[in-house]
Amino acid sequence: MTKYISLLQLKGGAGKSTLAINLIGYFVSKNKRVLGVDGDLQQGTLTAWSHIFNHKNYTCVGINTLDELMAVLQEADNQYDLVITDLPPRLADIARSSLVFSDLVLMPVTTSAPDIWAAADISPLIEAAKKDNDVNLRIVWNRFKPTKRKEDLKVSSKEYLGHKEMTQTISDYVAYSDVVGMGTWVGAHNHPKAKAEFIQFAKEVEKLVK
């Protein structure tokens, strides 16, 4: 059965595409058939990366509208093990639908006020979706430095946002941006700390969609 993972954040620059790229790399390395859906074509990071990431078990498509997205998802059903969608910022109809069709929604948030406020703006959509569906959403603390101030902010922000979070945080290692331009992922890169961190994160994701 196909599993659907979506990366959602109404604010651009939060790290959706980077997380999507590295999750694709991880699952392809496990010999899974993966479809990447680039819903953020204005930025186009996933599409550009896909042009240089060559693997027989991976395909990428781009979408601009909710109708295009739903058509792609219907066609993908049972043809792929996973569909990983990099959702666009600021499009509420697609964001709302993602909460319904996804087995897991990952919302990257940095410990900065604009990211936290943008994450809070999604809450009404989440509460509306919960009325009719089980919503499996997790905050991903991205570019996270484990200082006392950041840890305190993370705790208070979790209470403010009211969502569950991934146990494994993602650091601000430069390897995460390097691999995008190289057409690879951190698990195939020569940065042991980033590799170990992300594999732990991806295993946590894997458990959540089983």
Task: Please characterize this protein's 3D structure.
With 210 residues, the chain is of the alpha/beta class. It has one domain: Rossmann fold. It has helices spanning 16-29, 45-52, 66-76, 92-101, 113-121, 123-130, 148-161, 175-182, 192-208; strands at 3-7, 34-38, 58-62, 82-86, 104-109, 137-141. Helices cover 47% and strands 15% of the residues. The longest helix has 17 residues, at 192-208. The protein starts with a strand and ends with a helix. Strands 3-2-4-1-5-6 form a 6-stranded parallel sheet, sandwiched between helices.
Characterize the largest beta sheet: strand count, sense, and whether it forms a barrel. Answer: 6 strands, parallel
Structural class: alpha/beta
Going across the major beta sheet, what is the strand order? 3-2-4-1-5-6
β-strand amount: 5-15%
DSSP, total strands: 6
The rough form would be described as: globular
CATH architecture: 3-Layer(aba) Sandwich
Q: Can you tell me the residue ranges where pLDDT is under 50 for at least 5 consecutive residues? A: none
Give, in order, the helices and strands. EHEHEHEHEHHEHHH
CATH homologous superfamily annotation: P-loop containing nucleotide triphosphate hydrolases
> Which fold does the CATH topology refer to?
Rossmann fold
Kindly report the average pLDDT value: 90
The tally of domains stands at: 1
Write a short abstract of this structure.
With 210 residues, this protein is of the alpha/beta class.
SSE order and pairing:
Blueprint: E1 3-7, H1 16-29, E2 34-38, H2 45-52, E3 58-62, H3 66-76, E4 82-86, H4 92-101, E5 104-109, H5 113-121, H6 123-130, E6 137-141, H7 148-161, H8 175-182, H9 192-208
Parallel strand pairs: 1-4, 1-5, 2-3, 2-4, 5-6
